Amino acid sequence: MPEFRAPEDTRISADFRRGRGAVANQSGRYESETRVAFDDGWGPDEDALPIRTDVQIEKPKKIITRNDSPDIPFDRSINPYRGCEHGCSYCFARPTHAYMGLSPGLDFETRLFAKPDAARLLEKELAHPKYQPKTLAIGTNTDPYQPIEKQYRIMRDVLEVLDACNHPVGIVTKSALIQRDIDILSRMAERNLVKVAVSVTTLDRKLHRAMEPRAAAPERRLETLQALSDAGIPTAVLAAPMVPALNDAELESILEAAREAGAQEAGYILLRLPLEVSEIFRDWLLTHYPDKYRHVLSLLKSMRGGQDYDSTFGRRMRGQGPYAETIRNRFTLAVKRLGLNRMRRRLSSDSFTRPRVAGEQLDLF
Q1: What is the pLDDT averaged over residues 259-276?
Q2: pLDDT score at 202
Q3: DSSP assignments along 243-260, one per residue
Q4: CA distances from 293 to 208, 212, 237 (A)
């Protein structure tokens, strides 16, 4: 396999990208011009500060996103934010930043978009006479509890709407900030309206800091699972993504730790490298784990039909081939041994109450 190296003119100085996941800021695939960094001969700027997070306000017309993908268990979702400050090098949502004319690289984790009107738009959409309630998924694209949620509190506003309407919601996060909303979540859990999955990628602090520099530490995620479980909120662990020869050896350990923290269900996803994520992850891997570069990519390709990624429904999450089958069998055996997934909780929409919007005429009876 020929050695891959991202073009030197796309890499950002380590001083500038300190605390970030991606190591470059390639132009988006829709751009007619390409960014080029060059040495002007003056040498590095010793006073240069790390890239700061910039947040812009986005005002969408609708907040519920629909999908008809046959291999995911929901047909609607909400994304309170675009981009994610956690900086996970492997994030499959990175390519969406290209739609904004921005880079899926460092721009994705430093130039964010917040949607403060999310709760108002949600209430309006739920009030539509033709709306039929089904579980809403939140956190399946970017994390709703990423650091800027402390300031914007969009997710809490959304939960208050869902709580008032008795609408079911499934949440995925890798942030301990969700503990702030245990008061709402526990009320919803009493009515079978919520389930929370905490994503745990690794228990290794060094690997965590490299892969997910601004996400909660592994022990904090386990503490979060425990706190949610103690509050009566149904929890699951998502061992994701599993990266061959990098963190897949931890699969059983992650499931065991999560089970001890109260998780009742579990799932896993194989590393996905769609579009620009392939180059971003390759560059990250070469920078942080050059000795594992060839081995990781070789195993990954063996599970993706010789390619970095296979987008085929049914295969994109799990892969194929002997190595993928081994991971699948290990997961199945561990789940059975630990007593996970004995019962898959199905949330209820039977008590859904359509919200009333301002100016709506009340029923006569």
Answers
A1: 97
A2: 98
A3: -TTTTGGGHHHHHHHHHH
A4: 17, 18, 28
Cα–Cα distance measured from residue 243 to residue 246, given in angstroms and rounded to the nearest whole number: 5
> pLDDT category, 38, cuts 50, 70, 90?
low
On the 0-12 / 13-18 / 19+ scale of CB atoms within 10 A, 289 is middle
Per the prediction, the chain carries an average pLDDT of 91
C-alpha dihedral over 104, 105, 110, 112, to 10 degrees?
Answer: 10
Question: What sign does the dihedral 318-319-320-324 (CA atoms) show?
Answer: negative
Residue pointed to by tokens 């599993």: 242
| CA distances to 112, 129, 184, 321, 343 from 115, in Å | 10, 24, 21, 41, 35
The CATH number for 332's domain is 3.80.30.30
293-302 and 277-288 are packed helices; what angle lies between their axes, rounded to 10 degrees? 150
How does pLDDT run across 96-142, given as a tens digit for each residue? 999 999 999 999 999 999 999 999 999 999 999 999 999 999 999 99
The answer as to whether 355 is a domain residue is no
Domain that holds residue 228: 8-41+48-338
Compute the radius of gyration of the chain from its Cα atoms: 21
77 within a domain of the structure (yes/no)? yes
Interacting residues of 76 by C-beta distance below 8 A, sequence separation 6+: 64, 65, 66, 67, 134, 136, 137
1, part of any domain: no
- Tell me the average pLDDT across 308-337: 95
> 112 forms bridges with which residues in the sheet?
55
pLDDT of residue 53: 94
What's the rounded Cα separation, in Å, for the pair 63 and 16?
34
Distance CA 138, CA 69 (A): 16
pLDDT of residue 30: 82
**What is the tally of structural domains in the chain?**
1
Which secondary structure element, helix H or strand E, spans residue 173, and what is its range?
Answer: strand 169-173
pLDDT over 70 at 8, yes or no: no
Residues 235, 228: contact at Cβ < 8 Å?
A: yes
CA atoms within 13 Å, Cβ hemisphere of 119:
15
Asked if the bond preceding 234 is cis, omega within 30° of 0, the reply is no
Q: Is residue 359 part of a domain?
A: no
